[in-house]
Amino acid sequence: MNDIVHSQAADFPYHMTTTAFELPGYRIVASLGVVRGVVVRSRSLVGTIGAGVQTIFGGNISLFTSLAERTRQQAFDTMLVQAEMANADAVIGIRYDATEIMSGVTEVLCYGTAVRVQEIE
């Protein structure tokens, strides 16, 4: 699958995603299986040097925070594209996981269960 950017996942409504295993106001009528988004990122040399400078002064390492946030968002959006391809109405039980593959290279995984739902009247 090609890299997913935020705009490609915009059609899937964020309010239909949750870390819970139910969606208030909706009944789950079908489970479509696990959907996931995987992103593997490395730190750039320039970013690593800049972050090294930031560590001297302490506090938030904004270069790494920004990289982590972009990576998680890309993994989330990729998961939503998979959910959309599965014709899901919602994704429940969303979780993140991260693994260092090698020094400076991290895999970020976002996964959940794609479901079809029906609004409770």
Q: What is the radius of gyration?
A: 17 Å
Q: What proportion strand?
A: 35-45%
Strand order of the largest sheet: 1-3-2
Number of helices: 2
Question: Kindly state the mean pLDDT as a whole number?
Answer: 82
* Order of secondary-structure elements: EHHEE
Specify the overall morphology: elongated
Through-space gap between termini: 38 Å
Low-confidence stretches: none
Strand runs, count: 3
Based on the coordinates given, report the CATH architecture of the domain at 8-43 and 73-119: 2-Layer Sandwich
CATH topology of the domain at 8-43 and 73-119, by name, is: Translation Initiation Factor IF3
User: Could you describe the largest sheet, including whether it forms a barrel?
Assistant: 3 strands, antiparallel
Describe this structure in words.
The chain is of the alpha+beta class. The protein has a domain at 8-43 and 73-119: Translation Initiation Factor IF3 (2-Layer Sandwich), CATH 3.30.110.70. It is built from 2 helices and 3 strands; from the N terminus they run βααββ. The mean pLDDT is 82.
Feature tags:
121 residues; alpha+beta; Translation Initiation Factor IF3; 3-stranded antiparallel sheet; 2 helices; 3 strands; elongated
